[in-house]
Amino acid sequence: MGSIFYKVTLHNGVEMPAFGLGVYKVEEGTQIEKTIQTALDLGYGLIDTASFYENEEGVGQAVRNSGIPREDLFITTKVWNSDQGYDETLRAFELSMEKLGLDYLDLYLVHWPVKGKYLDTWRALEKLYREGRVKAIGVSNFKVHHLEDLLLHSNEKPVINQVELHPLLSQAELRQFCQQKEIKVEAWSPLSRGRFFDEPVLGEIAEKYGKTPAQVILRWHLQHQIIPIPKSVTPARLKENADIFDFQLTAREMEEIDELNRNERFGADPDSFDF
């Protein structure tokens, strides 16, 4: 993992950057376009949006304005809860593609496991994948029981499960399950908006390497083979988040960070989320 250009190979053979930018709550218009342009200039290749974020148009605009060949970028979006179901998902996909202004999508995700609907939603994703409109399909916020159900009733297995994951919610059991099934794990909110940066162990490790607690946490994700997509709109922070490829945590340091786990969620619990 020597550079920001490092890629992981998904189980269907598609290559995906091991690190990216999440754009939740980044405002449509100049803010999103500037943020993505800065990120792309720094070498970010993965941009993660969703129809729910209401900034797909800005993402598409930034991609087109970047001058970077389309095949060198990896764009993800997601189908929202109120658009789930077979026909609804196909319609939602067309709308997302219209907003993005792209010919194809690299990764399409089911945003949340909406009870009674996500299997039909998944069938729609399988269709889009078969037709080559999408290079890879996956899920977000799925627990082990959701994945088991999906794997039992599908032709394609997800390439990825994107979940809330950080040292206070390390999701060890879910990660192990995904690894057994060759499903990559991606972390939204990998830094939890800095809620636990003052943990002494992070400070000590950061000091040792001349890094920040945020950089140590992102490095922890990478070394656990988790794909982190930290969000920031500040150029300095975007640069800092990406500057994590020139040091390596020891096995002991990884364990110390693992021990911070408290199974503490800051986002919604997929089992009690009000869809």
Write up what this structure looks like:
This protein is α/β, with parallel strands linked by helices. It has a domain at 9-194: NADP-dependent oxidoreductase domain (TIM Barrel), CATH 3.20.20.100. The protein is 38% helix and 16% strand. It is built from 10 helices and 10 strands. It has an 8-stranded parallel β-sheet with strand order 3-4-5-6-7-8-9-10. It has a two-stranded antiparallel ribbon with strand order 1-2. The chain is globular, with a radius of gyration of 18 Å. The termini are far apart. The mean pLDDT is 96. Pfam families: Aldo_ket_red (PF00248). Belongs to the aldo/keto reductase family. GO terms for molecular function: oxidoreductase activity, acting on the CH-OH group of donors, NAD or NADP as acceptor.
